[in-house]
Amino acid sequence: MAVLIADNQDITRAGLMYILQQMGEDDVRQASDKAGMMALLADRKPTVVILDYTLFDINDADELLILADRYTQVWWLLFSEDLSLDFTRRLIASSPRVSVLLKESPLAEIRECIRQTRTGRRYICQRMAEMLLTAPVTEEKLNLTRTETEILKDIALGMTTREIAEKRFSSFHTINTHRKNIFRKLEVNNVHEATKYALRAGLVDSAEYYI
């Protein structure tokens, strides 16, 4: 079975490639965007797709489930910094070919998840399983990941994309991608609308708020 690394971060692709080579995988492909991923899946070959959903141009769970229905020979391993709980629940309830692995997972768990997914078994990492059981109220309400919730608060406090990137030791591109995802999920069009949403959700106290 082939493995396709679908992630737009060079360091993540390089790290996964190293792990897969250590595991003896010899048919590994890479894609840095959705178009590249789709092109590599066109041959309908049985494939495990290791996908960072949060950094790819995929609109929502519905679109990912459509892809799962279209490519019945593909097993999806969602490998992201974090994922919203509603999104994760929807996927694992709708498709048995979706595994979930957070990037904070230890190396042994990353290897085990890849092994299990390659054999057609679903795997949910320990951290995500714990999060699904505890279900933070704010995250459920907003349908945002932990990172997106934190970034929304920073946006509401008047920080620029570059300032947020520096604060989180992330790239401008990564924060900008999160920002676009936040606006899409909340169905807002600008910073002012996003800030009002954050205020209503109680993420920011009105005394802290400024534009």
Summarize the structure.
This protein is an alpha/beta fold and 211 residues long. It is 53% helix and 12% strand.
Structural overview:
- By secondary structure, this protein is of the alpha/beta class.
- The protein contains 11 helices and 5 strands.
- The protein has helices spanning about 10-20, 35-40, 60-70, 85-95, 105-120, 125-135, 135-140, 145-155, 160-170, 170-185, 190-200, and strands at about 1-5, 30, 45-50, 75-80, 100.
- The chain has a 5-stranded parallel β-sheet, with helices on both faces.
- Strand 3, helix 3 (about 60-70) and strand 4 form a beta-alpha-beta unit.
- Helix 8 crosses helix 10 and helix 8 crosses helix 11.
- The chain is globular.
- The termini are far apart.
- The model has no long low-confidence stretch (mean pLDDT about 85).
Main beta-sheet annotation = 5 strands, parallel
Mean pLDDT: 87
Q: What form results from the Cα inertia axes?
A: globular
Number of helices: 11
Order of helices and strands: EHEHEHEHEHHHHHHH
Quickly give the structural class: alpha/beta
Strand order of the largest sheet: 2-1-3-4-5
Radius of gyration using CA atoms only = 18 Å
Q: Which parts are unreliable, with pLDDT below 50 for 5 consecutive residues or more?
A: none
Percentage of residues in strands:
5-15%
Number of strands: 5
Query: Terminal Cα separation, in Å?
Result: 52 Å
Report helical residue fraction.
Answer: 40-55%
